[in-house]
Amino acid sequence: MVLNKKTLTTGEEGRSLIQPSLRVLDLLSSLCILPVFLDEPQLLARQVFDGVTMASSTKVVTNTITTITERLDTLRVHHNETTITIIDDIKRHLSTINDISCQSHIHTHEWITDVMDLLIDLWKLLTNSTSLHPKQGTLATSFFSSLFSSTPRGLVLHLEQINKRLEPLAADSTKFSLKGRTIPKARHNDPEFQGRIEDRNVMIQKILTCTKVEGVVSVAAIVGMQGMGKTALAKFVCDDPTVRVNFEAVIQVDTGIHGEFYADSVKKTMIQQLDPEKDDLGDAIRGRRFLLLLDDLRSENREEWLKLYEMLKKAATATSRGGGVLVTTRNYHVASLVDVYAWRLHRLRKEDSWSLFSNLVGGNSSNQVYQKMEKKCKGVPLALVRMARILKSKPETELKQYQLEKQFMQEMKSLYFNDLPTLHQKQCFAYLSLLFPTHFIYSDGFNPIHFFSVKAETLIQLWTAEGFLGHVDLNSPQHPQPEDLGLHCIQEFTRSSILVLDNSELMTYKMDNELIWELSRFVASKDRFCFSVNNRVEAVKETVRRVALSSSLNVTHGIPKFLIDSNKALHTLLFPMPYSYDWSSRIPYEVKLSWSACHELFRAFKCLRVLNLTDLGMKTLPNSIGELKSLRYLDLSRNNMEKLPKSIGKLKHLQTLILSHCHQLRKLPNELQHLVNLRHLVMDDCLRLKQLPLALKKLTSLLTLSHFKVSTRNNNNSKSKHILGFQELANLKNLSGKLEISHLEQLKLKKSEQGLSYLKEKQHLKHLALKWNHDDNDNNDHNENDETSLGHLEPHVNLQGLKIVGYRGAEFSPWLLSLENLVTFSLYNCSRCKYLPPLDRFPKLKSLRLKRLDSLEYINTNTDQNKLSLEFLQDLSISDCPALKSWWKGVTEGTVAIFASLSNLEIQYCPKLECMPLYPNLNGKLMLEGSSMKPLSDTIKNSSSNMSSSPPLYNVKRLTITNVEGKEESPLPENWLESFICVHYLCISGKMQRMRGFTHLTSLSTMCITKCRGDDLPDNNQWQGLKNLRRLEIQEVDKLKTFPEGVKHLTSLTKLSILSCPELISLGEGIGELKSLQLLYIRDCNKLGSLPKELSEVKSLQELSVMDCRLLLPRCQRETGDDWPHIMHIGRIRLAGASEIYE
């Protein structure tokens, strides 16, 4: 059937369909030149004709917005700031509309029609104003090299008009999305929700913490990728009887929008649901304790979240009842914003996954094909649902495994891949499967315990080398560089949980969902990617362009013949990267890739663009490296070569050269000056590399020079003409990211050189580390020299992170006061520093770390202890400052100043520090080690008397108290632990006389008790409150003879470790009550003579480890040991003595 306007107007549905259907047809007609985003436009139009008008219209809107957004991204790259601002506004409005258009039940025909009209106008504007034809090359290079024509003033005016028309439509969509509702009662027999028992228990406990104290609003967040069951879990939590009993009002608001501002709308929705006749939220609550479910929160606007939280807190305080907020989100940025310890949803347990799948497919679950297909879903609930629908739609005669797998992956592609807004994001996603290992390791069948992580800079450098992020244009400052696009891509991946931040300090990311990795591989396989898993691979197709070798592939004696013979046009070859940035995967001096094998590799693959040769133990790099004329990325880290061949200078296109941890490397060749396109030179921990060649000053494109080592030959007084001097370093003005300058004690500068600043013009530098490497026996002559050197190292005011190590000056340079954009500030081993620069000059400071400041007496020269300007400080760490007495000069007590935003506090080995600002609002970690407890006592006492709502420290999640004792004149109040109602990790070491109140720690999940006396342990009654404790470790408790009987109350305990308790003779009978125990670990308990017979009743026990227990080891031997009948049911038993290990 040919669909046209005539056939539409004569359809049976009558006039009510004519106008919407014509708009769909017009839109389809206008999209006929697009890349295929609408897979079957004729079929879709026929659906409109047949009467499925609203569903089809919304699908057209969704697909069109995706295409337009991609076109806008490309347009954005090439225009000025004004145009970019307008484009960003349009994209934001389109994103908001897109989310709501998918929910046909909450918007109107009129609204969707207006949206379609606007999209037609916008698409015509874009197609008429650009020179990019959609049928141009699909490679990244052709995509990004195709430029839009110049932006005339008329186009800007049209875009402004479009933006004005979009604003009210987006505003209307926000109103649609925030139609709140009370949560319908969950169905506990829901076939699409199974398991999650631990997840439910944890979230219920987190929510119920607010019920212990009047006026408190607790926040708990669930984070995970789409399809993990966040919303279903949240509804089951809200429907739990214990939750319903404690909350009189339970309200849900769907906030699945990208809009930045939502606080007022949420407040209005709550009032409408609670009492529409009221105007004030407190009045609407009327003394009821409320639970608010914010489902699918996406906005990263910190101010908006704080605004909403303050509204809720004010309402809770006014009613003196309190409340809770439960947030679900797929965005890790949002999760960390609202809840520092957000609960991460992982895959379902194997048994829960199979149970859900069996319910979904009905009686066919015994079919072997069904069983294989269930495993393909990797425990993701939504994937199981989709797979079940596929299987139920086909008769058993058509159940071909290959076809089913392909159809399933197409479904997953539509869920997780097709909505990626730009071409470069899709290419970067496909590339992820090359970088992460091909296997995932889980504990207890579902929790990930080990994942390989990759640095953000590595991801961006690889994507750039592949050409996914466009071309470099240093001549146009307004042109986004590949590094900018790459960082934006990583941020987008974390927003959808494709990537997860693993280490915020190293900026490493991991892919912790096996299904997403499988999808990445599936997508990549269509773009000529290949993965070599082991030596059994016989051939690689000639069309393959990228190969990642597995660690199981042996290349000691050469590159596999199948690889060399079959593919001469290979673009990418990645050897396995080590699993950690801190250690090597090979033994020292082991050679995994010989010179001859490496030479053979270079001669075979002359088209390589990306080559990773990390951690192969190479001692010499062949000269044939120079034949790789197309090479963009070269990683030689963790090898043993002493020098690089001169031929490396022939790599004219090289952008990234990584030499980190090459401990034998002594020099770099002058030929590096020919690498005119080099942007990143990474040389961390090259311990024997004393200087850099002078020729590096010609590398004007260099963005990253990770490390510069000062020597007696490269400072300005040196006569050497072949070494990169400090003056030449100053001329590398495009340096960005991080720069570490070490051995500054070798830098000889004169005071007379006033005004000379070597780093001030590096406006793109974000993090700077300045290190003086003095010997311990150095004399005082370095004092003045260090101060002079620091004075000439003034960075640009854009600097965000500053770290000073080993500085022996008594005062800091005045230029520190100009760093108004400083976010992190660290001082290590500055032994003569008595005070810090005024911290109020750093208004954006979020992290302050002070370590080994031997002479530091106070932090602030201001004597007004009631004044504190660090309103954004979130992390504070002070350690090994033996002379530090007070935060303020001359003030030792009586402070009422409060850290407003502090989340984490660590004070270690500062025994004299007894006066500092109070910290009642901590919501992360509190660590006190070898220090006075008076600041803690002051915080609890003063905050309790002055604050009318939240008790002090109630929101702390991790508490460590080791080797500390309060003085008699300032003792902690009795049962002071009662304040820590949200703590889930507790570590206690040393004397515990003051540790009382364990029974109130109902949120506690992990507890470690070390180096205390047996009679200091909690008594039997105090153990009763720890019903959610899952991990318990007792170590070096000298006088413990019998294990506490009260542990029988720990009904949720899964792991018990008993270590180095020399007097322990019995575990007692209570251990038989631990019905959830999975792992029992006993080490170095030489008087422990037997295991209790009650252990045979603990059927949940999966693993038993007995290490260095001379009396116990023979009793646990298989078949012959006296205790064997008590432990024979345990799946894994590990026995280890001084010289033998038994499995």
From TrEMBL:
Keywords: Leucine-rich repeat, Plant defense. It comes from the Eukaryota. Pfam families: LRR_8, LRR_R13L1-DRL21, NB-ARC. Transmembrane segments: none annotated. Gene3D superfamilies: Helical domain of apoptotic protease-activating factors (1.10.8.430), P-loop containing nucleotide triphosphate hydrolases (3.40.50.300), Ribonuclease Inhibitor (3.80.10.10). Residues 727-852 form the R13L1/DRL21-like LRR repeat region domain. InterPro entries: Apaf_helical (IPR042197), Leu-rich_rpt (IPR001611), LRR_dom_sf (IPR032675), LRR_R13L1-DRL21 (IPR056789), NB-ARC (IPR002182), P-loop_NTPase (IPR027417). Residues 214-365 form the NB-ARC domain. This is NB-ARC domain-containing protein. The lineage of its organism: Eukaryota, Viridiplantae, Streptophyta, Embryophyta, Tracheophyta.
